Amino acid sequence: MVRDDPLQAQIDRLRRLRTDDEWIEVKAAVGGLPKSIWETVSAFANTAGGLIVLGLDEANGFSPADGFDLGMVANQLRAGLTEAPGTSPKVSPVPTFDIKHDEVDGSPVLTVSIQPLLPAPRSQMPCYVVARGLQNGSFKRVGDADQRLTPYETYLLNSRFSDDLTDREPVRGAELTDLSVDLVDRTIARLRSTGSRALGGLSPDDRVGALKRINAATADGRPTLAGYLALGIYPQQELPQVVIDVTVHPGIVKSQDPATRFLDRRMCDGPLPTAIQDAVATVMRNLGTARVVDGARGQDLPEIPEEVVRETIANAAMHRDYSTYVRGQQVAVDVYPDRVEVSNPGGFYGDRTKDNVAEGYSTSRNPSLVKLLQVVPMPDGVSTVCENQGSGVALMVDTMRKRGLPAPDYSASSIDHVVVRLARFGLVNPETEQWLASLPGRTQASRHQDIALALARNKGSVAVSDLRANLGLDSDDCRDVLAHLVADGLLIGVNDGPYVLADLRHTETATGAEWEVLNALDAVSPRSIQDLVAATGKTRHALRPILRDLVDRGLITPTAPPQSKNRRYLLG
C-alpha cells in the first residue's frame, strides 16, 4: 500500500535510505530548536531549497522523538525567521519559508519548507548565520550535509547580480602588438560591412581607436582581457592556463590507472575562436556515428550533433569566470564512452540556474567578450563564435530532442562550476526498456512516463524542468505525467520536484518501531531476536508481533521455522 500523504511518503523513503538527503533534513529537536538548524536554513537557501522536519529521531529509524515539544519549537523557529522591526533573525537574508504542523506515525511534527534565494534577483547573497558572519556562516547543501562555502563561492554569490567588468580590465604585461593584425583587420572589416555604428566617426586607418571603441583596448591603449582573449596572437603568453583541455577517457569515470589514464588529449590554445574550433574538432573525431533513418533513407551521423558540441564549448569559454580567483583553471571537456562533459569555473551568473538556463534570453558575465565574439571571425573566415540572442541552449535542447537524445543535462552544476553533460545515446535503450517492463503496478504506460522514469533512474531525480526540456511539454502537462507515476507508486515527490524513484521492493508504509527493526538488519548478516533487543532497546515481547508482521509483508526473511532456537532475520 502506498500512502497518499507526501510527507509520510518522504519519511518512508528516508527510512529505506537510512539517512536524510540533499532535499530533506530531519532533526529530533528534543529540548528545543538545535543551533545547527540555521546552518541548514542557510544551506537550503543557497542551494536548491529543501524541507526541514522537526520531531523525528534519525538515530531511531526516523521514529517520533520522545519529548518533542511542538509548540515551543514552533515559537523558536518563527522568532528566528522574523524580520519585523525590533527582531533579530538568525539568518540574513531570510529566505521565503513555510512552516506547517503535520503528523508522522500519528505523532506531531513541525516542517519548514525553505525556498532557494535564486533565481529572484537579490541585493544580498549568500544567506548566512548572523552570529557567525558572512565568511564563516554561509553554507551549501551537499548530499545530507551542510558544508561551509569557500571564500570563492561566497564571492560568486555576493557578486552574482553585480556588473562584472573583469573583461574590460587591462592584461598585465600585454601590449597592442600582441594582438593579431590579421584578426583585428578582419574584425574591423566585418563591423563596417554589417553597417554597425560602432566605428562611427573614426577614420578607416584608426585601428587603435577602433579597438578602444569595441572594448578590445583600454583608454590608454592596452589590450583588455576581452580583446586579448578574442584577438591575441597567443593569449596564453600572459594567461597560460586559459585553455580548453579536451581529454578522452577509456571508462565512464576518470581513470586512476597511470598506465591508461586517457586515450586522447589536446590542450586547445590560441585566441578563443581558434581554441574553440580545435576543441570541437577533437571531440568530434573521438565520437562514433549513429544510423539515423529518415523515411526510406538512412544516414550515419555523429553520436552528438556537431552544432550542440560547438555551442556547449563556446558557452563555457565565453561565460566562464575570468577573475583572478580562477585564472589557473581551464575549461574542461571530458569525453567518456557514454557522454561528453563540459565544465567551466564560475557557476551560473545573474538569475540563471540549472532549471531555467534553456529559457530564451541572454545574461552575460563577460559582456564585452561576448560582444567581440559576435564579430571576430572563426578560422573558416565565415562564421563567428556566437549570436548572443539567448537562443543557444534552447537550440541545443531542440537539436538533441530531434535526434532522440536527452536534453543537455546541467544537474551536476554547482555554485562555482557549470557542468553540462551531453549523452551519446538515447534515454530509452534496450536495457532501459527491459527495466521499464519489469516495473510493477503501471496503470497507464506512455512514452512520456517512460522518459520521466528513465531520467529519474539515470540522474537520480526528475523535475518538471527536466520534462519540459526533454519532452517539450508545458509545465502543467509535465505535472500530470509525474502525478500518474506517483499514483502508481513509482515516484515520490511533490509540486515541481525533484521526484525520486520509489524503492519498489519496500513501498509499503512502516511505523517508526518497524523501521527501528529494519535499520538493525541487513541482507547479509542474520540477526537473532536477542540481537534486535540489544539494537532497539525493545523487549522480546514487544519485538515478536513486529517481526511477525514484517515477515508476513515480505520485508524481512526468517532463516528458520518460528519454533527454532536458530531463527534469525535478514532484510527481504
Automatic annotation (TrEMBL):
It comes from the Bacteria. Residues 21-149 form the Schlafen AlbA-2 domain. The keyword ATP-binding applies. Pfam families: HATPase_c_4, SLFN_AlbA_2. Keywords: ATP-binding, Nucleotide-binding. SUPFAM superfamilies: Winged helix' DNA-binding domain. InterPro entries: RecG_C_sf, Schlafen_AlbA_2_dom, Schlafen_AlbA_2_dom_sf, WH-like_DNA-bd_sf, WH_DNA-bd_sf. This is ATP-binding protein. One of its GO terms (molecular function) is ATP binding. PANTHER family: GLPR-RELATED TRANSCRIPTIONAL REPRESSOR (PTHR30595), SCHLAFEN ALBA-2 DOMAIN-CONTAINING PROTEIN (PTHR30595:SF6).
